[in-house]
Amino acid sequence: MTKEKTIAEQQIKKPYGSFEDIEIWPGRPYPLGATWSKKGTNFAVFSEGATRMDLCLYRRETPNVEAYRIQMMEQTDQVWHCYIPNLETGWRYGFRAHGEWNPKEGKLYNPHKLLIDPYTKAIDGTIDWHGAVFPYPITDEDPERYLVQDTQDSAPYITKGVVIDTSYDWEGDEQLERPMHETVIYEMHVKGLTEQHPGVPEELRGTYAGLAHPVIIDYLKKLGITAVELMPVHHFVQDSHLVDKGLRNYWGYNSQSFFAPHADYAASGRAGEQVKEFKDMVKALHKAGLEVILDVVYNHTAEGNHFGPMLGMKGLDNQAYYRLVEDSKEFYMDYTGTGNTVNMVHNRSLQLVMDSLRYWVTEMHVDGFRFDLASALARGLYEVGKLSTFLDTIHQDPIISQVKLIAEPWDVGPGGYQVGAFPVLWSEWNGKYRDSVREFWKGDAAGVADLAFRLTGSSDLYELSGRRPAASINFVTAHDGFTLRDLYSYNEKHNLANGEENNDGESHNSSWNCGVEGPTDDPEIQALRLRMQRNQLATLLFSQGVPMISMGDEYGRTQMGNNNAYCQDNPISWFDWEWDEDQKALHDFTQYLITLRRENPVFHRRRFFSGLKIKDTAISDILWLNPAGHEMTAENWADGNQRSIGMILNGEGMDEYDERGRRIKDDIFLMILNGYWEGVEFNLPGVREFTRWELLVDTHTSAVPAPKEYVADEPFILGPRSLYLFRLKLQPANRTTEGKRKVSIVEQVRKLLEMIQE
User: Fold this and answer.
1) What pLDDT shows up at residue 659?
2) What is the β-pairing status of strands 546-550 and 185-188?
3) Per-residue confidence (pLDDT) for residue 739, from 0 to 100
4) With contact defined as beta carbons under 8 Å apart, do 674 and 721 qualify?
């Protein structure tokens, strides 16, 4: 007789006490998950509909051999629990839920399936896509086979939770709390950035330890970014259809656990070492002044729809954890395009997500979150709502409400595009910024009115709701879509390597191949492509809001036209550290732009421009110019063929204060964007005898411009498809012999603006 049967039989008569070499106590319903101490381990798991819950334990040495199966005899507030004295760390575990099998009512209890704990802090093993992993017989050809219960034991083929010690010496580390408006985000992949770096030891490449290596941190620091946004690091699943094709889930948007760091990114081991390694990484990044933002996927899980596997939540309480079709509960509401949607209307699902967020802040010290398909989380019973339970709960939470919260403000359901609709405290990936800026530089006949909103923080989207420019996460490219280099190398997507006959990925990209599809030796086309990349980077970094740079765009990374490289865990997606001269120059140019942004607060204001005179001066904080050097007219704004525009950013007129209440002032800048395919004559504004403009950025050339001054009220030839940044520079002729200004800068700008506005 096995120990499993012995313990199960004995517990019917004696629920608690010693059973051969293991002891069982009632335990507590809180906290959920496996909670270890030196005295033992408490196990607690939620299931409202289960009639019995078994805890299965596996030794570290034999993780696929069940050592004990224990009935959890206590249920408190729908939480099953027990306590095992003296149970050490390193034990693997899972649950088996008994109950009604009635798929048409959404009830999928199947004790033959081992279930991962939704609260496990670490996961060991890899899923073997054996038929036993599915709750129904997958070999059955009946289209309604999902209604039939499969009785194969899934334990040998499934991942398992790990009992771990969560204690850690943070050495005084805390969240950095950098103001959002000062943030420059770098969206990156843990493996992709480090896998090919020659300075990272081979055994650390592709891992959390690799990201924490000094050569990687030094690179990020010198680039000038302030925060890394890590693509999903919650433990995720390698999809069966990708495994069958010999591919891998690279992006990681297929979560199995909301607490456990992805085990494949750990160099140190899978028995809890991955948790410590992640903490070491965060601590190292914080010491370098870099914040850590996680891209989190709470909207769906890897269990898919009614034909998907049974890995955890589906078997523990399908009705509580997932949105089911109201009158056909065997089917799932799919607002995510992945088969299922987490049921944020249910209090236990909401608790799971909130507990996870709080864990990553308090125990893992991350600085914020980017929520994948956040509209799916914000849905009430049917529609997306600002006052949904999820958003309302976050706003009331004293911990989560204080970190960086970034929404991807759309899902695939009806009414799911919610850019501009999230409430105060939230920032959003601004898809309208991406589209407008791409269209302008491509040369689409859309005019410049919408572009002006995007350059100044998208006040049309955020100001009326009480939000500020930092609500706009500005991006031109991201992991999903073309890289910046490919945006100007391809008109069409080239995704054949994904094995879906090029049917996957977005078809409308506002991209332009500059005359040739793909690689070319034509020096003119190569130069144009580099210029277009510089235009986008400069526009991004001089726009109000929070810029997000996609990994590798700073040097011109290519995916050879693949705009949906989610399954390309190979050099197509990885960061290439061997650069040619053009790539080195583009990197240096990006670094220079970030430095200019950081050193000049007028590029990262906390408040929107007013366009009005500030306090006791006659100077407005912003002014828009047409190529004649005069203020833009209503006709200019309405002209869909207008493709050149200038903007004066008046740092002298900033109505902002630092943390000590001191008035913030900056220089006065002139930025000119020329989206024409030909050169344009632009009259530099100002008072000729006093005004000089110093050229700081010229995207028409690959090099950072040497210091050069231009006289105001004289024409300046803009190169085709180029961006220019000037700084107002006072001349010695404007000073007395004692060094005092003959005309103050306020008076100078007053005259400048009066001349422009005449």
Assistant:
1) 86
2) parallel
3) 40
4) yes
Q: Is 743 exposed, middle or buried (CB count within 10 Å of its CB: 0-12, 13-18, 19+)?
A: middle
Helix (H) or strand (E) holding 633, with range, is none
**390 C-beta neighbours (distance < 10 Å), count:** 23
What are the boundaries of each domain within the chain?
Answer: 7-163, 437-608, 609-757
- Please give the Cα distance from 277 to 257 (Å, whole number): 18
Q: Per-residue pLDDT for 13 more than 90? A: no
Mean pLDDT of the chain: 92
Mean pLDDT over 271-275 rounds to: 94
CA 338 to chain centre: 18
Burial 602-641 (b: 16+ CB within 10 A, else e): bbbbbbbbeeeeeeeeebbbbbbbbbebbbbeeebeebee
Terminal-to-terminal C-alpha distance of the chain: 98
Distance CA 563, CA 347 (A): 38
The whole-angstrom separation of Cα 606 and Cα 562 is 37
Residue 136: name the closest of 158, 151, 114 by CA: 151
Measured distance CA(197)–CA(684) in Å, rounded: 46
Q: Which CATH superfamily is domain 7-163 in?
A: Immunoglobulins (2.60.40.10)
Q: What angle in degrees, to the nearest 10, is found between the helix axes of 523-541 and 581-599? A: 20
Task: Report the largest interatomic distance among the alpha carbons of the chain, rounded to a whole angstrom.
Answer: 104
Domains 437-608 and 609-757 share a fold: no
- Asked if the bond preceding 31 is cis, omega within 30° of 0, the reply is yes
Please name the residues in contact with 62: beta carbons below 8 A apart, sequence gap of 6 or more: none
Are 494 and 502 spatial neighbours (Cβ–Cβ below 8 Å)? yes
Task: Return d(Cα 467, Cα 522) in angstroms, integer.
Answer: 47
Q: What residue spans of 189-346 are helical by DSSP H?
A: 190-194, 208-211, 214-223, 240-244, 273-287, 313-321
Backbone dihedral angles phi then psi of residue 92, each to the nearest 5 degrees = -95, 155
pLDDT given at position 378: 83
Q: ∠637-602-543 over CA atoms, to 5°?
A: 50
- Count other C-beta atoms under 10 Å from residue 507's C-beta: 9
Q: How far apart are CA 623 and CA 647, in angstroms?
A: 6
Residue 286, strand partner residues: none
With contact defined as beta carbons under 8 Å apart, do 50 and 79 qualify? no
Please report how many Cα atoms fall inside a 13 Å half-sphere around the Cα of residue 186, on the Cβ side.
Answer: 25
Closest CA to 437 of 452, 424, 426, 422: 452
The pLDDT score that the predictor gives to residue 742 is 47
Per-residue b/e over 667-683, b at no fewer than 16 CB within 10 Å?
bbbbbbbbbbeeebebb
* Tens-digit pLDDT profile for residues 314-354: 999 999 999 999 999 999 999 999 999 999 989 999 999 99
Nearest CA to 559 out of 569, 570, 572 is that of 572
Question: What is the rounded CA–CA span in Å between residue 276 and residue 121?
Answer: 11
pLDDT band at 732 (very low <50, low <70, confident <90, very high): very low
Residues paired with 85 in a beta bridge: 40
Q: Residue 57 burial by CB count (10 A; 0-12/13-18/19+): exposed, middle or buried?
A: buried
pTM for the full predicted model = 0.95
- CATH architecture designation of domain 609-757: Sandwich (2.60)
Neighbours of 600 (CB within 10 A): 17
Average pLDDT over residues 224-239: 97
- How buried is 27 (Cβ within 10 angstroms: 0-12 exposed, 13-18 middle, 19+ buried)? buried
- Positions marked catalytic: 372, 408
* Structural tokens at position 631: 């203020």
SS3 content of the chain, % helix, strand, coil (to 5): 30, 20, 50
Is 698 in contact with 705 (CB distance < 8 Å)?
A: yes
Q: Which CATH superfamily is domain 437-608 in?
A: Glycosidases (3.20.20.80)
